[in-house]
Amino acid sequence: MEDNSISLNKYISSTGICSRREADRMIDAGRVKLNGVVAKKGNRVSEGDLVLLDNKPLKPKPKSVYLALHKPAGITSTTDLRDPDNIIDYISYPERVFPIGRLDKASTGLILLTNDGDIVNQILREENEHEKEYIVTVDQPISERFVERMQNGLPILGTRTKKCKVIPMGKFRFRIILTQGLNRQIRRMCEFLGYEVRTLKRIRIMNIHLGKMPVGSCRELSESEFTALQRILRG
């Protein structure tokens, strides 16, 4: 007969409250009961079993949520509810989510939010070099020298920025594609060259495009977007 049971630590971890290692510590501390009996490491959970943590039933992990928001200027990419302009209160989503990375308060454009911690780590891991695309306007005419220096890396924050792609879009505007995410990177790069950023909008994260989303609007990623995103993350 097929055994469809899973290890107790895996079951606890699958609810999203902790890692398997942390679950083992909870079991060792006597905080977990399986069908009314204090559990031990190595116990297995089958369909219909009741698992209690601190005498309270464990809730199943909520369905994974993946959102795209067109962030307006003035909203802070933080989950800190003490900040009156925090992004969580702004979107007022019925489930707990958090932003993937940051977009500074003065900037607008695409930011992703999720309740899936695993995908956050995959997207933000710098060595994966995932593309992010922005449209920027500055306070002075863009020169060939400006484009060349921006593309080939500049010294900011004690390091040198990676090579990137810069495409002029007019006298004061350009498109830039980055594969790293240093703090206020584009603004700092422009400042190093004596330019001031007037507007900055992120229009793409990997395969997810801002498109014609109105400012302030929020939507779930489509199935095709998420499938393509997973394919990119698998490399």
Describe this structure in words.
It is a single chain. The chain has 235 residues and is of the alpha+beta class. The protein folds into 2 domains: 6-57, Structural Genomics Hypothetical 15.5 Kd Protein In mrcA-pckA Intergenic Region, Chain A, CATH 3.10.290.10; 66-233, Pseudouridine synthase (2-Layer Sandwich). It is 24% helix and 27% strand. The chain has helices at 8-14, 20-28, 87-91, 117-124, 144-152, 185-192, 223-233, and strands spanning 6-7, 32-34, 37-38, 44-45, 51-53, 56-57, 66-71, 98-99, 108-114, 132-138, 155-156, 159-160, 165-168, 173-178, 197-205, 208-209, 218-220. Helix 1 crosses helix 2 (20-28). The protein starts with 5 loop residues before the first strand and ends with a helix.
List the helices and strands and how they pair.
Elements: E1 6-7, H1 8-14, H2 20-28, E2 32-34, E3 37-38, E4 44-45, E5 51-53, E6 56-57, E7 66-71, H3 87-91, E8 98-99, E9 108-114, H4 117-124, E10 132-138, H5 144-152, E11 155-156, E12 159-160, E13 165-168, E14 173-178, H6 185-192, E15 197-205, E16 208-209, E17 218-220, H7 223-233
Parallel strand pairs: 9-15
Antiparallel strand pairs: 1-4, 2-3, 2-5, 5-6, 7-9, 7-17, 8-9, 10-14, 10-15, 11-12, 13-14, 15-16
